[in-house]
Amino acid sequence: MDEVSTSVARWAAKDPERAAVIDEYVTLSYGVLNERANRWVGAFQEAGVTPGDGVLLMLPNRVEFIEVLVATIRADVVPYFMNSNVAYYSAKDIIDLAASTNARLLITTRSFMRELALHKEGPFWVWCVEEVDVSKYPNTRAPLTGLGTDIVFFTSGTTGTPKGIFVNKSVFNLRLPANSHVIEPRHHLLIKPLTFRGSMTTACNILQEGNTVVVARQSNPAKWMELIERHNIFFINLGPSDFMRWLDDLESIGAKFPSSVKHIMTIGEPLTSALKSRIKGLPAHLQVTDLYGTSEAGAITMINDHEWAGKDGSCGRPVFFITIRIVDENDRELPAGEVGEVWVKTRYRMREYYGDPAATSETCVGDFVRTGDMGFLDEQGYLYLCGRKHDMIKRSGFRIFPVEVENVLREARGVEDAVVIGIHHPERMQEPIAFIRLSEPLNAESEAKKRREILAFCESRLARYKVPAWVWFVKEIPLNAAGKADRRQLAQRLVRTNESG
């Protein structure tokens, strides 16, 4: 990541007034960002943080995130970027992590400190960014020693407890040519948390190019529109669920799609067919790129909207010299068209899981990373995902991938969103249960009729064993920190409902 730090310094020298980072309240030029990052280095040194030490970072999207990111590169420390959803951690979790990593410092916000009931007097320093006056520290640019070569960030916990992932900082150096011909920076809006690998990589790319990072502090489509209009946003990086909420909000208020936005990249889950249909109705000048990747491997495939017609359902072809294999349960490579686990070979792969060598050896097989996603390649090398390996439902000996059923459910009249999970059944191993959010609320009698209608629709489109055993109507589909459906929470909700009768 030293390339990001170098790029910030280069643009600070060339065009110090150029806008570097913006949020709802603050704008930092490259000159100011460069100086503040240096003063954070001075603050680290006065706190006794030395090269190779760990620093815990629990920050939401705000300009200070970028300041501290650049400072950790220059100070040669190991940053542990913790998920900004405090629901994933307790105070004890953070204290234990600090002890195991020998971290001397936690950088967070006042609100997070209160929610976690942390105290500034403890085994490590706790700094709230609102209270740190970096101007009082020396403008320091420490020489790189190579001791803090790693960056650690935590998964969203989609399949269990969040896992820390060690990635060498060098994989974020995109080796972009120095672009001295950019007259006016383009403004790029990042909506998903910067603690996610995809968002952090995008932010690094933007700064390396001398463009402007605009970060959304709030998960609120109205606030996004304010930023888009105020800063003439050219590019937006967001998740599919964010995109859907934004389009819903635009439709509800009768607003037009902003003309300044020319490119949107979605990260996280692949776009659904229903969402792609809505996107086709957006202005012709808009380019939409669907990027598939994982925390462990980084970006894997991408596909642009002009390819959708011929490759419906695909998440694209491999990028950046990446190799994909589809592997069966016996670790044998499968031919085109056959479903298996997606394995990825890439120089951008993680080094290891934090404190979990067993999980590391299970995930990293030779030069490949096992993604845990099931899918297949076609004859042209396009990847099609079927769902998570751990989400697969086994019903009376048949395999059911929830994504296939969910896509059908979303095509049913009146269905806004759908999630399918498997629950234990004493005779059939598992049964698929559908949670559905309707476009309009119904009374009990209408719900019963709608349930029969939806199940009949599924029977007309799916093999009988794939049809959900039951349909639950919910007001909202719960999302995890990554913006993906929280299947564990839905399963727990079902258990509580059954226990209460």
Automatic annotation (TrEMBL):
Residues 9-354 form the AMP-dependent synthetase/ligase domain. InterPro entries: AMP-bd_C (IPR025110), AMP-bd_C_sf (IPR045851), AMP-dep_synth/lig_dom (IPR000873), ANL_N_sf (IPR042099), ATP-dep_AMP-bd_enzyme (IPR050237). Gene3D superfamilies: 3.30.300.30, N-terminal domain of ligase-like. Pfam families: AMP-binding, AMP-binding_C. Residues 404-484 form the AMP-binding enzyme C-terminal domain. This is Class I adenylate-forming enzyme family protein.
